[in-house]
Write a structure and sequence with these properties.
Strand 1, helix 1 and strand 2 form a beta-alpha-beta unit. The protein has two domains: 203 residues, Rossmann fold (3-Layer(aba) Sandwich); 39 residues. With 260 residues, the chain is α/β, with parallel strands linked by helices. The protein binds nicotinamide-adenine-dinucleotide. The site of nicotinamide-adenine-dinucleotide has 28 residues, from helix 1, helix 4 and helix 6.
């Protein structure tokens, strides 16, 4: 049986990380051809090798903050796949600090990866995706791009910036490219939020799992954390024909933390 993403040729940035890997696995399951790209080229190669029994997947090293890298990525990915019709701008950096304490280096890094990196990748692929038509761009934002959390002012600013680009590109690239964002909540099992709880558990004691679950019980209407697969399932939906009338949107997958 053909999968929901048969005929889709997808590039996933940050594909060696928690959510990116889950999206790659889900895309393969649904019949897409996939290239994962990451600044950590060895990790991207390992991830592609680990998922290769599920379908056509390969890796390309790319720093999304580099104009030269993103252009080379687009050229190589278009050559390998015979055109790219799904781009998932997922690469990201976390960083928590009070506004009075955050170092300039971290401010620059967050802006570079989470905002400039998304813009450069969108720019690198926009023309060929527009020419091909029936293409899909998915930009990974966050609940922190829509509501405030302490110590996430700069991270939140980058994720709100992604939503601004998302809306503008949805108009600019219509009707040939649908452009949507996903705003994940807090992921329970892998990725940056999980590593944050692990770091807290090393300082405060208790397990990372308990810290996350307590947070969920106090802050999330559905009283649970999300999984990377919850985000991947939404990324499958947005890349599929089932979402053919959705563009310029930003879907919350956060258990009700944000309702808009
Ligand atoms: N995990 C969460 O709870 C959560 C919540 C909301 C939003 N998000 C967003 O989801 C996306 C994925 O997050 P994750 O939890 O899987 O994080 P992760 O750290 O596990 O994965 C991020 C990946 O991006 C890569 N990367 C970092 N800088 C890069 C660069 N300059 N060029 C290319 N690749 C680079 C990393 O090497 C890593 O593999 C991010 O955009 C993040 O902001 C995550």
């Amino acid at each position: 049986m053909a999968g929901r993403l048969a005929g889709r040729r997808a590039v996933i940035t940050g594909g060696a990380g928690g959510i990116g890997r889950a999206i790659a696995a889900a895309y393969l399951r649904e019949g897409a051809s996939v290239i994962i790209t990451d600044i950590d080229g060895a990790a991207a190669e390992e991830t592609a090798a680990a998922l290769s029994s599920a379908g056509a997947i390969s890796a390309i090293q790319c720093d999304v903050t580099s104009l030269a890298d993103t252009r080379a990525l687009a050229t190589e990915a278009n050559n390998r796949l015979g055109g790219v019709n799904v781009l998932v701008n997922n690469a990201g950096l976390s960083g928590r600090a009070l506004i009075t304490k955050i170092e300039e280096e971290l401010i620059d890094a967050l802006l570079a990866v989470n905002l400039k990196g998304v813009i450069l990748c969108a720019q690198a692929f926009a023309q060929t995706m527009y020419e091909e038509g029936d293409a899909v761009m998915i930009n990974m934002s966050s609940q922190a791009g829509k509501r405030g959390w302490p110590e996430l002012s700069v991270y939140g600013a980058t994720k709100a910036g992604v939503l601004g680009m998302n809306r503008a590109l949805a108009v600019e690239l219509a009707p040939r490219v649908r452009v949507n964002a996903i705003c994940p909540g807090y992921i329970s099992d892998v990725g940056m939020a999980w590593r944050g709880w692990e770091a807290r558990s090393n300082i405060e004691g208790g397990t990372a799992g308990d810290i996350g679950e307590n947070f969920a019980a106090e802050n999330i209407p559905l009283q649970r954390l999300q999984s990377a697969d919850d985000i991947a399932n939404t990324a499958v939906f947005l890349a599929s024909d089932e979402a053919r009338e959705i563009t310029g949107d930003a879907i919350n997958v956060g258990g009700g933390v944000v309702m808009d």
